[in-house]
Amino acid sequence: MAESIITLGIGATPENLTPFITSGLFIGAPLDPGPARSGFYRLGLQLLTGPGGAELADFSDALVCQEDNGPHGFRALECFVEMPLALAFVYYDLAPSAWLVLSSGGGVVWEGRVEDRGIVTGGLRLVAFGAWRAMMDVPYTALWSKSGTGDWKQVTNSDQAAHFSGRYSMDNNNRLWIGLKKGEVYAANQLGGWHFEAPNRGSRNNLHISLDYDANLPSSSWAMQVRSYAGGFGASSSEAQVLGTGSAQAGSLFVPMTAGRTIVDIALRWVAGGSYTVTAETDDYYVRVTNIRIVSSTEYAVGTTTTTTISAGSQAVTPASMANIYVGQRLVIDSGEATSESVVVTAVTSTTFTATFVNGYSGTTTVQAHVVYADEIIKDLVSHVTAVNPDQLSTDTSLIESPGLDLLDESYEDALPGDIATKLAGLGDDQTPPRRWEVGVWEDRRVHFRPKGSGGRTWFVEADEAEIGSTLETLYNSVYGLYQDANSRALRTAVADDADSQARYGIVRRQVVGVSTTSATQANVQRDAALEDGRVIRPRSSVSFEYLADRSGAIYPKWLLRAGDTLVLANLPPVANEDIDRARTFLVAERSYDALTDEAQPVPEEPPASLEFLVARRDEGF
């Protein structure tokens, strides 16, 4: 990532700048853009005991500060404050973990916690980092959603005394299989089972499961059970049960677990008295479980009913609610009943979903599915951080939006919240085409999670000088996704092509997008997002300008520009060519500003690439 530093001379007061900032926005009279303008508004520097705390010192006469911001908000502030050596020792002692605020009028230009300090020749040096740093302080462990069977393990007798898995035929090759062995004698309540356990000491301990099963068991004295256990195979409960019928049967389950349980066990057991001796061939009697999903949240779960009669075959169904139902989703129909099944949604409207059914149903059949969205996880990360360091982030989560993209595989062990949040932002959303998302912290230590650029402002500038160039390096008009099945076998989506882009440029450039999921739907979403992002050549811009202006023409100082803002080069004519217009209007990834010379340089999302960089990428085959 390119480094972006702002140098701010503190204490200057231009004669013709009268507005002030409130919460980062100017109110009042606009800045006169005439030649007499001296450059920038008066800035103050305060050292506080902590966020919103008491003032320890006002350093508004500091000689110089360097500040930058980037994709996650306020990033770094370094200030040198001239003072006698004895006084520098005093403030050196006060500074650890204090809060440094660069302000203008009533608003915040930059704020963050002091992390480095030093007594240097002539005074005190303070280095602070923005509130995003709090997302890198305390590791996080939690299971949110897990699909497939790859992480399921046999329950041994040493795990739990009632389990004798060695007496059963078992495998988890893209399924959970439990079969009876010929000649084996099974006593009452001797179980053969598979179990899944949430990460040890994780913060999410309220598990729920959905699954499909098919079975052939000798009689109703045999049962497949879904059980839950406390950690270490402590307290247990039977959560659901399917009894044998003496013939083949199939169905689906959507099962809420007892609160606080961290282990799910799927087991086969003889539930009658005495014992049972198998005379049939090994695996003639069995239970097979597929399409497993375990989650730790039901906030967005689908829980509705059908309102019309359903016949077998492809049917458009009108449920009582379409909330959180999407194409590619697996819905559990009539959970636990003899006619239960799961269906995959092939189409949706605002009031209906289409799927292919094996069975027919009445007009009040249950429709259920687990759904996990990224905003749930982001909010829990904020809660996790504020529980340990209460003053570092705000508990206000009103700036955290939902991307509406179901996440099938999200589990973290000892991961930093900032890394998790950045990864989630990179997944995009459920829109067509998918939008890119951003996560960060600006004023008031409030975490935001939203579509990229949606919280930024739009500024208009007249470019004095501009350098615009482009390269095929960033063009990708054909994309496929690489993801995994339940056993971590590599799978690939169909190739998505943009025919218009391929015709315009006369070349096909194909990209593979790796996705950490077992969901084909999620892989396709990220494939489509990459195609939308890469289907046109991205011009790279370097521009200098005299001032910022809003849509009404009011003028503002250059240091008000932030990452996430949109910059429009107003003196370049709008054109129909989409490629060129990306150079005229672009999103700011970072920005630099030198107040001593009043020169600003925004860094666009696609900064100018060096020849060395381009050659190195091509040498590596990219």
Overview features:
622 residues; mainly beta; Jelly Rolls; twelve-stranded mixed sheet; seven-stranded antiparallel sheet; 7 helices; 45 strands
What is the number of domains? Answer: 5
CATH overall fold name of the largest domain: Jelly Rolls
* Major sheet details: 12 strands, mixed
* CATH architecture designation of the largest domain: Sandwich
Low-confidence stretches: 1-40, 607-622
Q: How far is it from the N-terminal to the C-terminal residue, by CA?
A: 18 Å
Shape: globular
CATH level-1 class of the largest domain: Mainly Beta
Estimate the mean pLDDT confidence.
Answer: 84
Work out the number of β strands: 45
SSE class: mainly beta
Fold and architecture overview:
The chain is mainly β and 622 residues long. It has five domains: 6-136, no CATH class; 142-295, Jelly Rolls (Sandwich); 302-369; 374-450, no CATH class; 476-534. It contains seven helices and 45 strands. The strands form eleven sheets. Strands 1, 4, 5, 6, 7, 8, 9, 10, 34, 43, 44 and 45 form a twelve-stranded mixed sheet that branches. Strands 11, 13, 14, 17, 20, 23 and 31 form a seven-stranded antiparallel sheet that branches. It has a five-stranded antiparallel sheet with strand order 12-16-21-18-19, with no helix packed on it. The longest helix is centred in the middle third of the chain and has 15 residues, at 374-388. The chain is globular and about 90 Å long.
